[in-house]
Specification:
Blueprint (H helix, E strand, L loop, with lengths): L1 E8 L3 E8 L16 E4 L8 E4 L4 E2 H16 L8 H7 L1 H8 L3 H6 L11 E3 L4 E4 L2 H12 L1 E6 L4 E6 L2 E7 L2 E2 L3 E4 L4 E4 L5 E9 L4 E2 L6 E2 L1 E3 L5 E3 L5 E6 L7 E4 L9 E3 L3 E3 L1 H9 L6 E5 L3 E3 L5 E3 L6 H4 L1
Parallel strand pairs: 8-23, 11-21, 20-22
Antiparallel strand pairs: 1-2, 3-4, 4-7, 5-6, 8-9, 9-10, 12-13, 14-19, 14-23, 15-16, 17-18, 19-20, 24-25
């Protein structure tokens, strides 16, 4: 379908834009973010732009909707907008996405079989479009943001310069070697240490068992209930210049957090994964370390368990 949008720029220039969008996942649902433009006045770089969401946007259509918004505005804005800039300018979106976490809903006695059908953007909510000054401020913050992961501490932290913004519990790779069909060889499952950057986001990940290579679509939760798998982005890392498939992604079994349990990836809560994703655009720096001696929030020194038994091997 073709949608035609007229925009009044500075009250003088009339712009005519024809764009085509479709929803490949549901042909009965047409998502045109342009229908939701409530006001667009570009009188100067500090103009206020707001969009009212005119229908409930579910998780499975969320990224397409945001991509439509970004593409529309980037056709004529004097600066480049991105999904990460847009959402960080509207932190309520992250809060709403966090509330699609399976375990948050179970805590409220609400069982959710398919999180993809939960509402990510409720009808009537307002999305603000950042101006150039706000975009520059957020872009500067992104450049100063880094991830820090300490394996034996089972912690992932987000820093902006030296300021701690967020701290999350994670799970890490198991201390063993195992043949993985997807790799075609025996793999050391320990999470690799080193410095690097975020190089990719997988917004609609497929789930495969790395041991046998089989794809799966449902998961057994900690409460033994079966649900469909969520659609939460996986974050791809490059450590020491190598892309070894070591991802940061949510786990559907949060009882495994604080343990060496995975096949090498860093696992998080579903709610935490949304926060991490929106603080780590591509290019964000990351440091994965193995420090056994740490100082807690009270200034006390603690010696952590040598989960990978590096001291014994030495």
């Amino acid at each position: 379908m073709t949608y035609k949008l007229f925009l009044n720029l500075s009250g003088v220039i009339l712009a005519f834009i024809t764009l085509k969008f479709c929803c490949p996942k549901d042909n009965n649902l047409e998502i045109f973010a342009f229908n939701d433009i409530k006001e667009f006045r570009l009188q100067n770089q500090d103009s206020l732009h707001t969009i009212v969401v005119n229908r409930d946007i579910t998780v499975d259509n969320y990224f397409q909707y945001l991509d439509s918004l970004v593409k529309a505005y980037n056709a004529f804005m004097p600066y480049k907008l991105s999904e990460h800039l847009l959402v960080r300018h509207n932190p309520w979106i992250i809060d709403t996405l966090q509330n699609t976490d399976y375990y948050r809903n179970i805590a409220k006695d609400s069982f959710v079989y398919n999180q993809k059908k939960m509402i990510a953007l409720p009808k009537g909510n307002v999305i603000g479009i950042p101006n150039v000054l706000q975009v520059n401020k957020l872009s500067s913050a992104f450049k100063k943001t880094r991830l820090d992961i300490n394996i034996p501490e089972y912690k992932l932290r987000i820093f902006q310069d030296s300021i701690l913004l967020h701290e999350f519990s994670v799970r890490v790779g198991r201390d063993e070697k195992k043949y993985l069909k997807m790799a075609g060889r025996e793999q050391d499952l320990r999470t690799k240490t080193g410095k690097g950057i975020i190089v990719g986001h997988v917004k609609n990940p497929d789930y495969y068992n790395p041991v046998d290579g089989r794809q799966y679509h449902v998961t057994r939760r900690d409460d033994e209930k079966i649900t469909k798998l969520p659609q939460i982005p996986f974050i791809e890392t490059e450590i020491n210049g190598v892309r070894n498939g070591q991802l940061i992604h949510p786990t559907t079994n949060q009882n495994t957090l604080g343990k060496a349990y995975s096949n090498g990836c860093i696992g998080t809560k579903e709610a935490d994964a949304w926060v991490i994703y929106y603080y780590t655009p591509i290019g964000t720096k990351i440091n994965i370390r193995y420090d056994l001696n740490v100082v807690d929030a009270f200034g006390d020194s603690n010696n952590l368990q040598d989960v990978y038994k590096y001291k014994q091997r030495d």
